[in-house]
Amino acid sequence: MARIAIGDVQGCLPELHQLLKQADFRSDRDELWFVGDLVNRGPDSLGTLRFVRSLGDNARVVLGNHDLHLLAVAFGGSRTLRDDDTLNDILNAADRDSLLEWLVSRPLAVREGSDLMVHAGIVPQWTVDDVMMLAAEVEQALRADPVKLFESMYGNRPDRWSPALEGADRLRFVINVLTRLRYCRANGRIDLKMKGAPGSQESGWMPWFETPDRRTSNARVITGHWSTLGLVDRPDLLTLDTGCVWGGALTAAALDSDARWSLPCDGYQRVKMSAQSDG
Hints:
The chain is of the alpha/beta class.
C-alpha cells in the first residue's frame, strides 16, 4: 500500500484524475491524504466531493478554510456565498445532504506515526499531542452544533495562544491556526492578513514553520493552503499547495518514498499570484 498526499484540489477534478494516473493510484490498494480545500474556485467542486467520498477509508481528509466556508453557508447561518465562490453545484445537488454530512465529519488534523497533517499551520507552542487534542475540541463542537460554531467562527481575534482561552475564542483561534495560518511570531502571535511568499512579510514575522523552538519539529507536518509558498519538501515539513486553481500545478507526494508528481494547470482564477485571496 502506498500513502500519497495531495495538495489543495479546490474543485480541479480533471487535474486530480490525471495526477492520480501519473501516480499509478489504485483505490483498492493505496491511501490518499488530502490536505484540505477540496472545494471552491475550481470548476467541479461537486464532482470532487463525490469522488473523494467514494474512496471511503482510502481517503484521509482534513478540513480547510474553503471546506469550512462551504459548511458555514450550507448550515444556514449568516454566511453567504462570495462572488468568486464556485459552490452552487454542491448546494443545489440532490445528494447535498449526504455530501455535507460526510464533509462535516472530517477532522482538522490527522496523525500517523511521525506524520501530522493539517491544512495550514501550527503555532510554535503546540506539541503534536496539543494539536490533536485541540483539533478534537473543534470537531466535537462542529458535530454537536455546527450552526453555533459557524456563527462565532469568523474573525482574527484572539491573535495569540493561551491555554486559558475558553469558549468561542478558543475554538476560533484553533480553527484560524489550523486552517488559515501562514505567519506568526516566536511568542505565538499570529497574523492572518499577510499572504505572500516568505520574504514579503513585515519585519518581526516569520513563516510558522521557521519559528525557533517549534514543538512540532519532531514530526513531519504535511500542509497545503499557501500557494505562494509552493512545494517545500524536507524531513520536518511537506507543503503541497502549488496553486493549481491559480494556474500553477497540482502536486502529490508519496509519504513512504521519494516519489513526487506534479501536473501543470491552466488555472481557473485569472489573478496575479501575489494578489490571491485566502487559500
